[in-house]
Write a structure and sequence with these properties.
Largest sheet: 6 strands, mixed
Structural class: alpha/beta
CATH superfamily of the largest domain: P-loop containing nucleotide triphosphate hydrolases
Number of helices: 11
Strand content: 15-25%
Number of strands: 10
Radius of gyration: 20 Å
Order of helices and strands: EEEHEEHEHHHEHEHEEHHHH
CATH topology of the largest domain: Rossmann fold
């Protein structure tokens, strides 16, 4: 399977201009961050723990207001009034790494219904949205359970449903597969893929280099509150210096490919493979 091509347009949906954020204890979490996000793209934010990824997400969603600089959504500076932030969060949803920081209602259905019922929709329209999301995310079997009785994978699906029911234009996922078993991690990956296919702009914070290499249109590397590099997956994962600075390794497929090229088994001019199947095909064809 080949990676999806970059979008045909370059419409900027979100932009950060020289954004700085310092916590009350004096920690400088963001230092002059400049970033443009293209509508519909799949953007991975990567870096070591403490590099500023989570603070960046909270700033994109309006939870943190920059101490300096500006965040623009659809070319308009973010309005940090209560009304302005409510409008922003209808368009930009965030799925936290720990679902327990997001879920608070007594039952799953009540949890998913809470936000949409506050949009001013009719009860019938709100109910239709909730039922659609419950079905799409395969939540029906536990829809009436208390949220605190759910498994980690079930909680993650409900936290995604919380956002999707609002019909957002952009979703931020902070380490979406954290603490999940392989089965539920794959399930969340599939949901994220489906959202991208629908044209929703997805920004993903992850340590999973294999996932980012296969999935992302563009990767941004962060270190100590600053962006140190950005580019396509091929550009980022062949940048030895940037990977060393951010404590990231190369994806497994790329490591094997480069090793086979070095030993003369494969030709270095071949397009970089992103999956094991692509690499296996090169080897079967004996392309040297």
């Amino acid at each position: 399977m080949q990676k999806n091509d970059r979008k045909d347009h370059n419409e900027i949906i979100l932009e950060l201009e020289n954004v700085c954020y310092t916590y009350e204890d004096g920690t400088e979490a963001l230092k002059g961050v400049n970033l443009k996000v293209v509508r519909g793209e799949k953007l991975a934010i990567m870096g070591a723990n403490g590099s500023g990824k989570s603070t960046l997400f909270l700033t994109l969603n309006g939870i943190h207001k920059p101490n300096k600089g500006m965040v623009l959504y659809n070319h308009i500076p973010v309005d940090y009034s209560r009304k302005g932030l409510l409008a922003l969060r209808k368009k930009i949803g965030i799925v936290f790494q720990d679902p327990d920081n997001q879920l608070f209602s007594a039952s799953v259905t009540q949890e998913i219904s809470f936000g949409v019922l506050n949009l001013g929709l009719s009860f019938e329209e709100a109910r239709e949205r909730v039922e659609k999301i419950i079905e799409e995310l395969n939540i029906t079997s536990f829809r009436d359970k208390p949220t605190h009785f759910l498994s980690g994978g079930q909680k993650k699906r409900v936290s995604i449903a919380d956002i999707l029911v609002m019909n957002p234009e952009m979703i931020l996922f902070d380490e979406p597969a954290a603490a999940l078993d392989p089965k539920h991690a794959r399930m969340i990956d599939e949901i994220i893929d489906q959202l991208s296919e629908k044209g929703i702009t997805v920004i993903l914070s992850t340590h999973d280099v294999n996932r980012a290499f296969l999935w992302a249109d563009r990767i941004v590397l962060m270190d100590e509150g600053s962006i140190v590099s950005e580019g396509t997956p091929d550009e980022i994962f062949t940048d030895e210096a940037a990977l060393a600075q951010t404590n990231l390794e190369k994806p497994t497929v790329l490591k094997i490919f480069e090793s086979l090229c070095k030993s003369g088994v494969l030709d270095r001019t071949l397009p970089v493979p992103h999956t094991a199947n692509e690499l296996e095909q090169y080897i079967r064809e004996g392309t040297v």
